[in-house]
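A further point concerns the way the authors explain their paired sequence and structure data. Each protein is reduced to its one-letter sequence and a matching series of backbone shape codes. An entry of this sort, consisting of the sequence and the corresponding backbone structure tokens, reads as follows:
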Amino acid sequence: MNPDEFINWLYIVERLLEFKKVPADRVVKYMAIKLKRNDFLWWENLKRNRNREGRSKITTWDKMKKFLQRKHIPDQYQQDLFLQFTQLQQQLLVEEYVAAFEQYSLKCGLIEPEENTSARFLGGLQPAISNVVQLQLYWTFQDEVILALKVEKQQHRFKKSVEKSSMQDSVTKKLTLCPSKPPSLNSRTQEDSIPRRGMQNGPSQLIFPARKCFKCQGYEHIAVHCLNHRTV
């Protein structure tokens, strides 16, 4: 097992000890059964070597756990883990930050006053959330977590309403800046070019009757200029 897997395994088996209420004189044997194959072989070899060297038997869970931790957790691991814990910052959702915070707290085996845990948690929250949480009243670390989740939900609802309002304003501005277009000049020119029934294309002309002489009843001249001197 790698260090992370071992710490998770250790947490689970210790919860089992509490649940089953295993007697203290049987805890070591019970935990030996819970070891995985490679760890079980290592444990049997450790007991054999200690017996050959004349050392005392391991009869308590605390002592057995120290040997297991020495095997699976490097010396530098705990220091690096605690450094990562102190630098933990919320990147996405509060729920994901809470899960990471509790996991680091478990792996580091950190035992501190609840006020310190609350301050550490608050320092890793996003400023937009932590600034609101600080103004509220809470008594425990769990109260602080619930409050941070509520603040995040309220901010998400407010953000959605603002986005919806800005979208509606944008549509309204577009409709205001683009009024309906008047009829184009080309359409009116085309309409005027359609000939009306009963009208000529060109200008109307006045037609006068031909000149007629009343003496000879001829055309193209009048009586004054008539060459026919007949009497009527």
Notes: The chain has a mean pLDDT of 81.
